[in-house]
Amino acid sequence: MKPFAYLRPDSLTHASQLTEEPSAIPIAGGTNLLDLMKLQVETPESLIDVNKLSLSEIGDEGEGLRIGALATNTATAAHPRVRSDYPVLARAILAGATQQLRNKATTAGNLCQRTRCYYFTNIDQPCNKREPGSGCGALDGIARLHAILGASSQCIATYPGDMAVAMAALGAEVEIMNAGGETTRVPLEDFHRLPGDTPEKDNILESGDIITGVILPAPVKGVQLYRKVRERSSYAFALCSVAAIVNMEEGRIGDIALAFGGLAHKPWRDKRVEEALKGTEPSLKGFDEAAEILLEDAQGYGENDFKIPLTRRTLKAVLCEATGMDT
Amino acid sequence: MTLTINGESRSLPEDPRISLLDYLRQGAGLTGTKKGCDHGQCGACTVLVNGVRINSCLTLAVMHDGDDITTIEGMGTPDDLSPMQAAFVKHDGYQCGYCTPGQICSAVAMLDEVAAGWPSDVTDDLNGKVELTGDEIRERMSGNLCRCGAYSNIVEAIQEAALETKTAGADA
């Protein structure tokens, strides 16, 4: 590990000032960051330990729920209101990592975790995300985990998390304090970005920005499901995952929200798919048509071609379960 | 800046790069905690921090000012094994033994998590009581790998220790 300065601010303002330095990185749980520092993928000159800030609370926010930036994944998944009102979020968190990791991982850290692309984590390989302009090794290489939606010729990495996929389906907002001390809220589905020509930027955070929490809106009616397809049944990243919130009204699909993990550089939400399903009677034909809309621009890169039919089948299975249809 | 390891107070290292794992083994001389992958994938380095299990390889020692650490050395001694250690011996829950300290620390904390009602990925009812089935144990212990493949005996050992803990709790 390269040497770094270790700093422990005790106020948000001070933390924000310290992270304005270009080579400073905030550390919370550290489960992803320290891993990347050992590999010299991340080489900060200073590490800003934000754990002294009081940001771990989970509590009511109107009819919704506010989850502090430093709340652990464990605390969030075990919170009574998350379990009863936002089960898709509890399920998504529990489907990820291991208990040891979830005990350290935090809300903000989880949102900011980096891709698990093999070329990103190996400093001997080209990677435009790690070293802009060096090329993308995955384009003609090992691409099993990689994107089928929203990728660019510069980067086909995926956002690896589960928690954010459920939060995207729930319509959550990320609360961010900027260097000027102003607090803004950004819809979670706009927090992560597509790679385009600047894959080094995973999300919209600017220098000096500190995530202070995630706000879930008031709970909605309906069935909430999180289905994750992976290489083994525990402790593996998603090849494809679906977060679904579906409310049936007199035999027809009412309000519906769908978000997908493992497919893109961000949790993927396509409102056209939801619109196509809303108001319809559940049918395999209708689910097929919805999957067709979702995947019309999907592109495989050889090794991950299988993700296109896998996503179609996973979406159909989730919709069957959520609408109570026999298969 | 101090932390407590198995009840003994120690000062934190000056170099912030030192992981908690390296500090335990080299700074404190407690080599029971093992370094397997050093990347949070194998669980051999699992210890308890304030009663909660974590991978000690993925945290810096300097981040633990004031924390209370329990390692395998704090669980029991060869002459006075803890119930989980005794169950691992009885059920032959290891072959080479390298992953065992991490397995035992992990399993002890896991029983507390179940007692607290935390659900897992395989828990049917998120709001119901957790039954410690084989599937629950396997899922909850998925962060601890055993390259010898002693898994079936590890599950049996944990089931027995869980039963003893329950009985001891009922007696109290």
TrEMBL record, chain A:
Keyword Magnesium carried by entry: no
The keyword Transmembrane helix appears for this protein: no
Origin: domain of life: Bacteria
Recorded GO MF terms: FAD binding; oxidoreductase activity
Xref: InterPro entries: CO_DH_flav_C, CO_DH_flav_C_dom_sf, Diverse_Substr_Oxidored, FAD-bd_PCMH, FAD-bd_PCMH-like_sf, FAD-bd_PCMH_sub1, FAD-bd_PCMH_sub2, Mopterin_DH_FAD-bd
Protein keywords: FAD, Flavoprotein
Stored Gene3D superfamilies: 3.30.465.10, CO dehydrogenase flavoprotein, C-terminal domain, Uridine Diphospho-n-acetylenolpyruvylglucosamine Reductase, domain 2
Domain annotation FAD-binding PCMH-type: ranges: 1-221
Protein's name in the database: Xanthine dehydrogenase family protein subunit M
Organism from which the protein derives: Qipengyuania atrilutea
From TrEMBL, chain B:
Catalysed reactions listed for this entry: an aldehyde + A + H2O = a carboxylate + AH2 + H(+)
EC number: 1.2.99.6
Compartments, as annotated in UniProt: Periplasm
Keywords annotated in UniProt: 2Fe-2S, Iron, Iron-sulfur, Metal-binding, Oxidoreductase, Periplasm, Signal
Domain 2Fe-2S ferredoxin-type per the UniProt entry, residue ranges: 1-75
Superkingdom of origin organism: Bacteria
CC per GO annotation: periplasmic space
Primary location group: periplasm
PROSITE patterns: 2FE2S_FER_1, 2FE2S_FER_2
MF-aspect GO terms: 2 iron, 2 sulfur cluster binding; carboxylate reductase activity; metal ion binding
PANTHER family: ALDEHYDE OXIDOREDUCTASE IRON-SULFUR-BINDING SUBUNIT PAOA, OXIDOREDUCTASE, IRON-SULPHUR BINDING SUBUNIT-RELATED-RELATED
Protein function: Oxidizes aldehydes to the corresponding carboxylic acids with a preference for aromatic aldehydes. It might play a role in the detoxification of aldehydes to avoid cell damage.
Subunit description: Heterotrimer composed of PaoA, PaoB and PaoC.
Protein known as: Aldehyde oxidoreductase iron-sulfur-binding subunit PaoA
Species whose genome carries this gene: Qipengyuania atrilutea
